[in-house]
Write a structure and sequence with these properties.
alpha+beta, nine-stranded mixed beta sheet, two-stranded antiparallel sheet, globular, Tyr_Pase_dom, membrane, non-membrane spanning protein tyrosine phosphatase activity
Length: 462
């Protein structure tokens, strides 16, 4: 697998590999009929993300059996997952009913409620009185009650415990919600090590085991981040079973999973990250003797592996150092520059905001403020602010302490330099470079203003 990764990386072929997977899965001839029925259209968050009829989860209670959710099976790994969209206000009851009926022990939430000023998921759980909200959420349409029990903050993810009660039978079950709070939409986590810490925490709880109901995994659309999690987990199970890192074909495994839900893994970066996480995860599941070719953070890295790590961190950076600023005085009057030009455009489901107040589609984020006036969404900030107030600093400490495939940068020149020293130096250089660029931008702005004043002064003299 490492040879395959290095080959693809060396040829910069992730886009083409991803496109090959997409083209092959586009040839699947599975029927999508139920999701497109008139009565079900407002139950889909995105127009172009629908479950196949053959693998969709069917609700057993109530007047509707439809929910945008798919049962994804990986028989070779003895794993099953329910992948679904982030709940809407009108589907929150259906979501919890599915959790109850499928006997799921956990919900894995891989997105935040609001991302880039867009509501990506309805807040479908009670935040608890200790966080300024309510302890109970009663869903009369499905006769269920969700009671907040406790919350545990683990830096870049949160674990909540709820009591789910069937109001008809008065039976109750405890449900865990593992909420990864630092995974950007269409992006990848901060590092494979941080992501693996989350994954193995989920594993340790036993909620992925075959003797309990399948976990409910969701992001916003239920295909990108959700697909990445399930691919990495199932591949690591197979590696552990076979005691061999090279015993699996990641592309084939992803194609097999796409037979159950469309579009799993949405970007070449997510595919690349999956490879990295699987290679890094192999160090946790395989005996030490079988890991001769897997680089360790405690040993000197080969130049090839250095380049892997460096390019991974570079692909995750989104700072002013990605922009080339000219600091020389302007020879002509300054022209306006749209800040949107600095950001790549992604034509995908994320470009369409969903108005959660009326269940209709909107084409921009302009309705976000009115969306958030809803009382049901008003508790979002109180919950997430409490949970994540110290996340940035704690995440930095976690990454600095954990095994990390993506924490090196282009400044790596000496094989004898320790990883800790490299991180420290890279961070310092980045801060210095950013400070210098800010200084240059301010300088350019002052020069531009001075140039404009002189131009106006000359104009008045004429």
């Amino acid at each position: 697998m490492e040879v395959e990764f290095l080959d693809i990386d060396g040829r910069n072929a992730w886009n083409s590999i991803f496109q090959e997977i997409r083209n092959e899965s586009n040839n699947f001839s599975y029927i999508i009929k139920d999701a497109k029925k008139v009565e079900n259209k407002n139950l889909n968050r995105y127009r172009d993300v629908n479950p196949f009829d053959h693998s969709r989860v069917r609700l057993q209670r109530g007047d509707k059996d439809y929910i945008n959710a798919s049962l994804v099976k990986v028989p070779s790994a003895n794993r099953s997952y329910i992948l679904t969209q982030g709940p809407l206000p009108v589907t929150t009851g259906h979501f919890w009913l599915m959790v109850w009926e499928q006997k799921s022990k956990a919900i894995l939430m891989l997105n935040r409620v609001i991302e880039k000023n867009t509501v990506k998921c309805h807040q479908y759980w009670p935040v608890g009185s200790e966080n300024g909200g309510s302890d109970d959420l009663i869903l009369q349409d499905v006769h269920l009650k969700i009671t907040f029990l406790n919350l545990k903050n683990e830096s870049y993810y949160v674990v909540r415990k709820f009591l789910l009660t069937d109001l008809e039978s008065q039976d109750s079950r405890e449900i865990l919600q593992f909420h990864y709070t630092t995974w950007p939409d269409f992006g990848v986590p901060e590092s494979p090590a941080a992501f693996l810490n989350f994954l193995f925490s989920v594993r340790k709880s036993g909620v992925l085991n075959s003797n309990v109901g399948p976990p409910v995994v969701h992001c916003s659309a239920g295909i990108g981040r959700s697909g990445t999690f399930c691919l990495v987990d199932s591949c690591l199970v197979l590696i552990e079973q076979n005691n061999d890192l090279n015993s699996i074909n990641i592309r084939q495994q992803l194609l097999e999973m796409r037979h159950y839900r469309m579009g799993l893994i949405q970007t070449p970066d997510q595919l690349r990250f999956s490879y990295l996480a699987i290679i890094e995860g192999a160090k946790r599941v395989l005996p030490e003797a079988t890991l001769n070719n897997v680089p360790s953070e405690n040993e000197n890295l080969t130049e090839a592996h250095r380049n892997i790590y460096i390019s991974t961190e570079n692909s995750n950076l989104n700072t002013v150092e990605d922009v080339d600023y000219d600091v020389s005085p302007p020879p002509l009057p300054p022209r306006s520059r749209n800040s949107d030009d600095l950001s790549p455009s992604i034509h995908s489901v994320s470009n369409t905001g969903y108005s959660e107040l009326n269940g209709g589609m909107v084409n921009s984020d302009s309705n976000l403020s009115s969306m958030l006036q809803s009382k049901s969404d008003a508790s979002i900030n109180s919950d997430e602010n409490v949970e994540n107030s110290n996340n940035k600093s704690r995440l930095a400490e976690e990454i600095a302490q954990s095994e990390n495939l993506t924490s090196l940068k282009r400044s790596v020149t000496s094989g004898s330099e320790s990883i800790t020293e490299l991180r420290k130096r890279t961070r310092q250089e980045r801060e210095e470079k950013t400070a210098l660029m800010v200084q240059n931008i301010k300088k350019k702005q002052k020069e531009t203003e001075l140039w404009e004043k002189r131009r106006l002064k000359r104009k008045r003299r004429k």
